[in-house]
Design brief:
By secondary structure, the protein is an alpha/beta fold. The chain folds into two domains: 147 residues, 3-Layer(aba) Sandwich (Rossmann fold); 145 residues, Rossmann fold. It is built from twelve helices and twelve strands. The protein has a six-stranded mixed β-sheet, sandwiched between helices. A six-stranded parallel β-sheet has the order 6-5-3-4-11-12, sandwiched between helices. Helix 5 packs across helix 7. The protein is globular, with a radius of gyration of 19 Å. The two termini are 21 Å apart.
């Protein structure tokens, strides 16, 4: 169901000392196949963004800012709230322009810049890009602009590190949006962590919107999951990266389809650990004896965000402030 896109990427040989340096057991990797590429174009060069407004020096009392294309990033925020209960968080969901998965990289880069500007304008000590599509399109430019003033943490790299450590066979699967798959971001990140690994990427334009709709898992969701998992089962992957923050909500469905021996990797726990490490590195941690707070902004309907978001966050969502982006809310 829907348009699926598969690519198999053969990577380079692992240096002998790599596994020890990463705290991993050395493994024998299978001889990889020749590079095969079906149904995807070469990744475009990252868009160059105009400068953001100057950001003042970070204050440890400021919140950690998080943005996503919708409510999927709340699965990341959930892990942050559980792991860092003493920190404050400010979350912005761009529900008026959801979904991001089939948009052009230049457009995604522009959206990411706008959302980052809104959050940093309200004050933040660290920025989390919880959207895979936005990360793939805009992360290099955002880091170039902001890293010296505000640390930037994003999805893609943390999951790739976990997948590299988890795979025994060297065959790693990826399910993500078309924009994320076409960007090559996961292929590049996995190559840095496990150069001899093989990535099997499947793009689904429909799975994230189906999950965001809410309600019970129905035949449409099951058919979409089955279609996405079929090429991964044929490739006999032993590890699959969930390359969209919406996907953890259907994790049991994916696990059942792929089988219990396949390890599923999602971004939530990895991002929480990365945030904690960055705050410690920059000496911006809050007192662990305090109780943190969390607030929400949405570019779409606040009540719709609150209803859908509660299912993703698994914690109460109070008032949601509307942010007008000058666009019509998606139906």
């Amino acid at each position: 169901m829907g348009v699926l896109l598969e690519a198999t990427i053969a990577l380079r040989k692992v240096p002998r000392g790599f596994c020890r340096a990463q705290g991993m057991r050395p493994r024998r990797w299978r001889k990889m196949h020749q590079f095969r590429h079906r149904g995807r174009a070469d990744a475009p060069a990252p868009a160059r963004l105009p400068p953001l407004a100057p950001v003042p020096a970070a204050d440890r009392s400021l919140p950690v800012a998080v943005f996503d294309s919708g409510v999927g990033g709340l699965t990341v925020l959930h892990e942050c709230l559980v792991s860092l209960p003493h920190e404050d968080f400010l979350y912005l969901g761009d529900t008026a322009r959801f979904p991001y998965g089939d948009r052009r990289p230049a457009q995604l880069a522009e959206f990411a810049r706008e959302l980052a500007g809104i959050l940093l304008g309200r004050g933040a000590k660290l920025l989390v890009v919880a959207c895979n599509s936005a990360t793939a399109a805009a992360l290099p430019a955002l880091r170039d602009e902001l890293e010296r003033r505000v640390p930037v943490v994003a999805v893609v790299e943390p999951e790739s590190r976990l997948a590299a450590a988890a795979t025994e066979s060297g065959r790693v699967g990826l399910i993500a949006t078309p924009a994320t798959v076409k960007s090559g971001a996961y292929a590049n990140a996995l190559a840095r962590e496990a150069p001899d690994a093989e990535l099997h990427a499947v793009a689904s334009a429909e799975l994230a919107p189906l999950i965001q709709e809410g309600g019970e898992v129905d035949h449409r969701t099951l058919a979409c999951v089955e279609g996405a998992c079929r090429p991964l089962k044929q490739a006999q992957v032993d590890t699959v990266i969930l390359g969209c923050t919406h996907y953890p909500l259907v994790r049991p469905v994916l696990q059942r389809e792929l089988g219990r021996r396949v390890r599923l990797i999602s971004s939530g726990e990895a991002i929480a650990a990365e945030v904690e490490g960055k705050l410690r590195e920059h000496d911006m941690e809050n007192d662990e004896r305090r109780r943190g707070d969390y607030r929400f902004l949405a570019t779409g309907d606040p009540e719709q965000f609150r209803r859908a978001g509660t299912r993703f966050l698994q914690l109460p969502i109070g008032q949601v402030e509307h942010v007008d982006m000058g666009v019509r809310t998606a139906a």
